[in-house]
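quick q for whoever's on today - can somebody do inverse folding on this one?? i tried earlier but teh output was garbage lol. tokens:
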């Protein structure tokens, strides 16, 4: 959708007047929202002012742009309302199976502008839904092996779901905000918005901000100190739904895809649905909240009754874990793996319990148990996983600080530990590498100099590549390539970028030296000017580009002449030389022999 430079229309009042509506956007539905002024004199829409930009890495709009899908927002901000000027109701418009909502901003019957929010889905997405949307967008049939379709499906499954009462509540909230922008000072606006937050939005959307705060995960929003004061915060009791500060983390993931033909997109749909069901299931458990475990499972935070003794408290936690296991197995239609972290003291950040709950998932892979609690795994396995996590932390630290001394040795040590820990278990090896790649991606995403969307796109491509590998060797090679690309992205235009860009160009030349290659094209590939590329290329190879290219071609000509009886003119053509006598003269200059003489000498020898 169009994004003009924000310029708040004076007639719309302050966009920040009602924080409650911004809370709904920021912490729950996470939709793009714009206030579009109506220029009555010109008879058209005026400036677009951003109320909120979604915090997800990509959206439907990005795909509409990429595939040049035409959706004219402007025509819905004028004629639609002119046709029914008195209606207070919003207009919902569908595109590719998703919806945008337009709410008029009126004062005394006069339209001042329009609020636009979107895009969202009205129903829980299914694989046929995604395939149908993809076909409308691209004109192509969708398949699980299509990487572009996978990326589309991943983004669409992260699109907010406003179904039934939730959509009605959001329409009401949008109408209240429109009244506020029209300077309609109604005393019921603030309390009604607050009730909608408590009664509807907090009961149907993940508490992402609060969960990141509790687990000690990096967040772009400021978080206060996590301590015992949390128990006394009214909004935590009211909106989050717990009155005790959580002390234990439980994680759960499917053991694998359902039996039968494995469709990666269908698996995405299954996990996404499971995560939403987990959030609602947690509301049936005492003092428990659920959120996403990245894109492969669910995480629960909970606490036991503090009036109980320590053994009874642990037993209560394990009982909660068993209820989660039974729910997850039924919901996913197959075996699951549950990790239970140790309980921390009330008021402590749950980082350590979270780490242990995730470690338990690693330790449980290949075991004959569905619930693995911290401290229950064999000592050797625990020590092996702990060493693996320490090496991963070293890699993370290198990426966080931008210091890469000893990186190759640390990476080799990490991969050796993966293979040692999970010998002859390819799926467990894949699990370790997928988890580690997700951790490194999170570090790259938080680097302020890195484009967050670019990191997200790169990670999706790399994760899919890792998922498609078959052998252990392929997994290791793909993982190392993935880290190299993340490293390259984080380092920016530093020494690493220069070195790696030249290596990429050299690899390209090795594959395409038989073709016509322009130095300007190669410089663009390396992200530099021609002069800078020439200087860096010569420093890396010891020779200039033209000599490097001709050396490759001559070497190929020597090989072809020595191996067979291909006519000289065809040898020249196969090596990238122009036809005619030029090749013979050039070959003689480089080798001291004419092509035919070289062939006879090589074949006699």
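ok took a stab at it. sequence:
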């Amino acid at each position: 959708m169009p994004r003009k430079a924000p310029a708040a229309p004076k007639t719309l009042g302050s966009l920040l007047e009602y924080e409650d509506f911004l809370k709904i956007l920021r912490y729950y539905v996470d939709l793009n929202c714009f206030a579009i002024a109506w220029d009555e004199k010109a008879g058209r829409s005026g400036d677009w002012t951003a109320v909120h930009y979604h915090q997800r890495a990509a959206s439907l709009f990005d795909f509409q742009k990429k595939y040049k899908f035409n959706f004219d927002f402007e025509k819905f901000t004028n004629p639609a309302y002119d046709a029914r000027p008195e209606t207070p109701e919003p207009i919902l418009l569908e595109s590719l199976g998703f919806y945008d909502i337009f709410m008029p901003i009126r004062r005394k019957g006069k339209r001042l502008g329009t609020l636009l929010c979107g895009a969202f889905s009205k129903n829980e997405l299914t694989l046929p839904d995604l395939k149908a949307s993809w076909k409308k967008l691209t004109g192509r049939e969708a398949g699980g092996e299509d990487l572009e379709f996978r990326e589309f499906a991943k983004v669409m499954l992260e699109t907010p779901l406003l179904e039934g009462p939730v959509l009605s509540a959001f329409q009401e909230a949008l109408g209240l905000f429109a009244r506020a922008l029209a300077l309609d000072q109604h005393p019921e606006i603030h309390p009604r918005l607050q009730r909608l937050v408590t009664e509807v939005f907090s009961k149907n959307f993940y508490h992402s901000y609060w969960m990141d705060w509790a687990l000690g995960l990096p967040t772009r929003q400021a978080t206060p100190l996590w301590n015992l004061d949390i128990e006394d915060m009214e909004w935590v009791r009211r909106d989050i739904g717990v009155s005790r500060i959580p002390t234990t983390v439980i994680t759960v993931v499917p053991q694998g895809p359902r039996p039968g033909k494995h469709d990666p997109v269908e698996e995405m749909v299954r996990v996404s649905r499971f995560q939403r069901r987990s959030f609602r299931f947690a509301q049936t458990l005492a003092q428990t909240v659920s959120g996403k475990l990245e894109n492969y499972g669910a995480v629960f935070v909970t606490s036991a009754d503090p009036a109980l003794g320590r053994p009874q408290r642990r037993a209560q936690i394990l009982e909660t874990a068993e209820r989660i296991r039974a729910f997850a197995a039924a919901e996913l239609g197959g075996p699951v793996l549950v990790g239970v972290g140790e309980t921390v003291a009330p008021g402590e950040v749950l980082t350590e319990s979270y780490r242990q709950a995730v470690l338990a998932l690693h330790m449980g892979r290949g075991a004959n148990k569905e619930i693995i609690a911290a401290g229950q795994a064999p000592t050797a396995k625990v020590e092996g996983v702990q060493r693996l996590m320490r090496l991963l932390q070293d890699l993370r630290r290198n990426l966080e600080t931008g210091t890469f001394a000893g990186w190759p040795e640390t990476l080799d040590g990490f991969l050796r530990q993966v293979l040692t820990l999970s010998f002859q278990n390819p799926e467990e090896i894949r699990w370790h590498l997928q988890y580690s790649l997700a951790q490194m991606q999170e570090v790259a995403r938080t680097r302020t100099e890195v484009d967050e969307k670019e990191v997200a796109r790169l990670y999706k491509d790399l994760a899919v590549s890792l998922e498609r590998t078959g052998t252990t060797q392929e997994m290791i090679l793909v993982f190392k390539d993935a880290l190299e690309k993340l490293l390259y992205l984080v380092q920016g235009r530093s020494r690493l970028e220069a070195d790696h860009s030249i290596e990429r160009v050299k690899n390209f030349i090795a594959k395409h030296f038989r073709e016509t290659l322009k130095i300007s094209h190669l410089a663009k590939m390396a992200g530099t000017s021609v002069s800078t590329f020439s200087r860096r290329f010569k420093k890396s190879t010891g020779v200039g580009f033209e000599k490097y290219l001709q050396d490759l071609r001559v070497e190929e000509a020597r090989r072809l002449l020595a191996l067979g009886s291909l006519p000289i003119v065809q040898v020249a053509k196969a090596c990238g030389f122009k036809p005619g006598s030029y090749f013979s003269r050039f070959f003689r200059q480089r080798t001291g022999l004419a092509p035919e003489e070289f062939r006879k000498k090589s074949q006699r020898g």
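fwiw Residues 445 and 451 are 8 Å apart (CA to CA). also Strands lie at 32-39, 44-52, 91-95, 98-107, 110-120, 248-254, 289-293, 297-302, 336-340, 371-373. so keep that in mind when u check it
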